[in-house]
Amino acid sequence: MKEENEETLKARNDACDFAVDVGLYSNVFLALLKTAVGIVGHSAALLADGINSTSDFVYYVAVKIFVRLSRMPPDDEHPYGHSQFETIAALVVGAFIITTGVAIFWESADRGWHLYSGTAEAAAISIYALWTALFTIALKIGLAVKTRRIGETTRNPVVAALAKDHVNDIMASSAAALGIVLALLGYTWVDPLAGAVVALFILKTGVGILRESAMELMDTVPGKELDAEIRAALAGVAGIKAVEEVHAHRFGPHFIVNLKFCVDGSLPVSDGDRIATLAEKTLYEKFHHIRKVYTHYHPEKRS
Fold first, then answer.
1. Which homologous superfamily does the CATH classification assign to the domain defined by 224-299?
2. Helix (H), strand (E) at residue 173
3. What are phi and psi for residue 42, nearest 5 degrees?
4. Taking the model in full, what pTM does it have?
5. Which of 64, 89, 141, 282 is deepest in the core (most CB within 10 A)?
6. What is the pLDDT of residue 2?
């Protein structure tokens, strides 16, 4: 098993912690700000967006706790470490986000219908609701860019997911801002409907988290991109005639890889072992997120 050197691992963990902490504190601030302005400014869309930020806050707290737990060293019962803590947390949070989205959608759509049908009256929306939505968009753009860069640098799926969540927040706040603008122009029934649109973004995020986490727990084989990258890396290993199978499954931020390849049938077993060791070393050096490589080789088939 290849162990990442302590300096590289610390730098990766520090970058991940920075992305989580900045997102966590930002969402606390935005949740309080948007919820307060949404209530005082009579904006259902902004209030829904504030509840979205509250959901994000809960998600970040879970991520922060489980990221810490996932860094516990391997033991006899968990030889690959405890990285699956992140996946379990994501499943729980994904379910919570979906529940929140359903509740917001129902309330916003119901209020919008009553306003549209004339069975309820809308209070005047404050201009501060619009400024708050625009401020949120600007802040989230900055967070999305920074978090995406960290995710690409560390190749950490958790940070990459947080970057996607920031992008979802940008779209949700944009929908809220549009609803507020139309409400200020007199179309008051559009504001709660914009809240329903925000709820759809929340639902989309929750379903995506559940889907990705379930696929990970079920050991779903990663996409063709990783398969192609591994095959390309092994193409330069002397002695490998053909790579027959590449099976990899995610384990938290890492991958466990199983390889099957062909070697010259006339080679002694010791040479086959040397080639297998070289293949493992090549993958460890090229892919820092690969935790363990299992190799199986057999003689090349002669036609």
1. Cation efflux protein, cytoplasmic domain (3.30.70.1350)
2. helix 157-184
3. 60, 40
4. 0.70
5. 89
6. 47
